[in-house]
Amino acid sequence: MNKKIEFFYVDAFTTETFGGNPAGVIPNAENLTDEEMQKIANELNLSETAFLLPPTNANANYKIRYFTPTKEVDFCGHATLGTAWLMANKYNWIDKDDKIVFESNIGLIPVKWLMENNQLTRVSMTQVSPQVKSIDISPAVVADLVGIQDTDIDDRYPIKIANTGVPHLMVPVKTRQAIDQAEPKLNELKKMNNHFNLSTTHLFTFDTNGQFDIYTRDFCPNIGIDEDPVTGAANGALGGYLYLENILAQQKRHQIMIGQGHTINRPGILYVTITPDGENAVIEVAGAAVVSIEGKIFV
C-alpha cells in the first residue's frame, strides 16, 4: 500500500508568494527510507527539501535532513528557516516555546521567533561558528568561471572560503550590474567547486544604491542547482567572512540587510546579525516566509 506523505512548499526570505527561495518540507518523515527521501526531493525538484524525524539529541525537538534533487547535503539555510516558519504556524510551535531546535549533520540549529504586536514577523536561526580560510586560485580564473570580467572583481577584499556549516567561496564584486550580468560557465564552475569541496560560489557587492546593505548571487551546479535564489547558509557565511576579515569592525555588533534573487525573479531579503563572541562571532540569519503549496505525495 502506498504511503501518503504530507508535503509543503515554503517560500523563504520573503513575505510574498512566489518570491524568495522555495524549499520543500516533509514534517513527518519518520517512516521514509533514505532512498525514498531522495526520490521525493527529486520529484519536488526544489533546490533543497527538508525532512523532519525524531531527534537523537535530547536538546533537539527534531532531527532535520536536507536533500537536493541529486544528493543529501549537511545544511541548508533557507530550508531551515522555511521549516521553522511552517512549524511555528501550521504546527503551533509558536504556542509551545519561544524557539525550535533542529539536530542536523553539522550540529544543533536553534531557530527563535521574532514577534511584533503578538504576530510572528520573522524567524532567526543561529548558525555554527564561522570559519574563513584561504584558497589557491587566481581572481582572473574565478572571474572567468562566474562569467564576469576580471576587472569586475573588487580587489579591496580577498576571495576566500567561508563556512557556517558548509563551505562557500566568497567573491567580492565592484558593482551590482556586474553581478546581475554574470553568466557562469556552469560545467567548469562545478569542477572547481568539487575540486575545492565547495557547496556554492557566492558573489557579493556593497553597490546597492541604498536598497540593501549588500547584494548577492549564488551559483551551485555541483549540488544539482545552477543558481540558488536566496541563500541562508551562504549569506550567513558571508557575515562571518566580513567580520573575521575585519571588513566589518570587530568587537562591534552588526546588523546587515542582504538582497538576493532579483536576477531570476525570486527577490528576497535576509537579515544577518553578527555578535562578537571572544575571538569569533555568533551569526544569526533571519527572514520571513510564506507557505505556497501543500499536498500529499504517494510513495
**Rg, Cα atoms, Å:** 18 Å
Strands, count: 18
* Quaternary class: single chain
CATH fold node name of the largest domain: Diaminopimelate Epimerase, Chain A, domain 1
Number of helices: 6
Class from helix and strand fractions: alpha+beta
The coarse overall form would be: globular
Flag low-confidence runs.
none
Q: Mean pLDDT, nearest integer?
A: 96
Distance between the termini: 9 Å
- Corresponding CATH superfamily of the largest domain: Diaminopimelate Epimerase, Chain A, domain 1
Q: How many domains, as an integer?
A: 2
Helix content: 10-25%
- From N to C, what is the helix and strand string? EEHEEEHEEEEHEEHHEEEHEEEE
For the biggest sheet, the summary is: 18 strands, mixed
CATH architecture of the largest domain: Roll
> What is the CATH class of the largest domain?
Alpha Beta
Q: β content, as a range?
A: 35-45%
GO cellular component, one term: cytoplasm
GO molecular function, one term: isomerase activity
Pfam families: PhzC-PhzF
InterPro entries: Phenazine_PhzF-like
In short:
This is PhzF family phenazine biosynthesis protein. The chain has six helices and 18 strands. The protein is α+β, with helices and mostly antiparallel strands and 299 residues long.
